[in-house]
Specification:
By secondary structure, the chain is α+β, with helices and mostly antiparallel strands. The chain contains four helices and twelve strands, in the order βαβαβββββαβαββββ. Helix 1 crosses helix 2 and helix 3 packs parallel to helix 4.
């Protein structure tokens, strides 16, 4: 069985320049279509709005994408959502979508230290036809908060005995390869592997292909044989999605 996983900071459905398409759900349709066309099974999303004024007071973006995928793929898509920030009205957070049954394992809020916003980490247990796997998504802060928040994620996973589980974590570190937070995700508590392509831009790539990779897929407990990953050349958001194929 082949399962493809994608992680993507979708910038609350905005265009790369920060505006919205004529229909505020236009980019959500494009995101869902890309997920379908790439035969993705599990999706980690960051910067996801729910019922906000800016993105549409009636729209829960994770639910919208899951519903469109259910309609277009013929499979029932599920989603889990975590709130990072109360927008009054609505919420801003992260989500995991799956065409397999899924339960919530952990919801961890990552308080700010130096930056302006609290962030969050969501861990789910996805039950495929052959085995179960833990899928997590994160969006770390700025101004050095990446260091503290990465530590909190690895400590929580270690303290709750996830070190011997099949785990893939996908998300936005807000800091590049080689940073302190990056090495914490790889090494603190228990080791993980960065299975995304090395040295490939994921942030504002349409302006400068030498911009950093700050979006990652970290893996533990699964064979890396026959794995392939790439950054998809899509400029819907200011981030490009990272895709992991066939595990």
């Amino acid at each position: 069985m082949c399962i493809n996983i994608l992680t993507w900071n979708i910038k609350v459905g905005q265009n790369k320049d920060g505006g919205y398409p004529v229909s505020k759900t236009g980019n959500l349709d494009r995101i869902a279509d890309l997920i379908k066309d790439s035969k993705t099974s599990i999706v980690c999303l960051q910067e996801v709005d729910a019922y906000t004024l800016r993105s549409g007071i009636k729209t829960h973006q994770a639910a919208y994408i899951a519903n469109r995928l259910t309609l277009t793929t013929g499979k029932v898509w599920n989603y889990k959502y975590i709130v990072s920030k109360n927008m009054n009205p609505g919420y801003y957070g992260n989500a995991i979508l799956s065409c397999y049954p899924m339960t919530t394992a952990l919801k961890i809020h990552l308080p700010k230290v130096n930056s302006k916003e609290d962030r969050s980490f969501l861990l789910t247990n996805v039950h495929t036809d052959d085995f179960s796997i833990y899928i997590g998504t994160f969006h770390l802060g700025l101004q050095g908060d990446q260091f503290f928040q990465a530590q909190q994620i690895k400590n929580v996973l270690n303290n709750n005995c996830y070190l011997d589980k099949r785990i893939i974590l996908g998300g936005d570190l807000n800091t590049p390869e080689g940073s302190v937070a990056y090495h914490i995700m790889l090494n603190q508590g228990f080791p993980m592997i960065d299975v995304g392509p090395v040295g490939v831009c994921t942030l504002n790539c349409y302006n400068n292909s030498d911009n950093p990779k700050i979006d990652f897929l970290f893996l533990r407990g699964l064979s890396t044989y026959n794995l392939r990953s790439e950054v998809l050349p899509v400029d819907i958001s200011d981030h490009r999605p990272v895709m992991l194929y066939q595990f």
